[in-house]
Design goal:
mainly alpha
Length: 179
């Protein structure tokens, strides 16, 4: 069941949908949501990133920002590298500063930007969490070990991770056909 009025789970992006929506966002918002999409981080983690957290070929999510309060580093995907290079992001301080520049952009501003872009295409059930669910589901379908997905995404338990993974009706039919 798709997400509605902030209830149930966020929809999974198709690659086309994600590209459409990203094309409607400002370079700053495109960078923020691309970080979420290619690292599996939460929007609250991405918005608090500092320029100093982009270390070599990785993005470091410091223990102060993740829900689990554990630092983790996620390698930068080549497509993400290109998006970040195209954006005019600060070289120090918050990558995504708010209006004052002293605090990060608000979660509400991120959510509003994404909702407006989704509305242009009539996309319902998508939220800032769609990136995280899509990331985990795609890695799972690609055969990546669940333990690697759990570590990279910062889930505290395998049970917590498994709630994020999408299983299509076709996959269920295929599973039963193997009996």
């Amino acid at each position: 069941m798709p997400k509605r009025d902030r209830h149930d789970q966020a929809e999974i992006w198709s690659e086309h949908q994600f590209e459409q929506v990203m094309g409607e966002l400002s370079p700053k918002m495109r960078s923020l949501f691309s970080i979420c999409y290619y690292t599996g981080c939460r929007v609250s983690e991405a918005r608090q990133l500092r320029a100093e957290d982009v270390v070599g070929e990785s993005i470091v999510l410091r223990k102060a920002t993740p829900k689990t309060k554990r630092t983790r580093a996620v390698p930068i995907h080549p497509k993400l590298k290109a998006v970040l290079a195209a954006a005019d992001l600060p070289s120090s301080g918050y990558l995504f500063p708010g209006r004052s520049g002293e605090q990060p952009i608000t979660r509400q501003a991120c959510d509003l930007a994404l909702r407006k872009a989704c509305d242009l295409f009539g996309l319902r059930g998508y939220s800032t969490h769609s990136n995280r669910r899509t990331w985990a589901t795609r890695l799972d379908k690609a055969g990546v070990r669940l333990k690697a997905i759990q570590d990279l995404g910062g889930w505290s338990s395998m049970a917590a991770l498994q709630r994020y993974l999408e299983v299509s009706e076709d996959e269920k039919v295929e599973a039963i056909s193997r009996l």
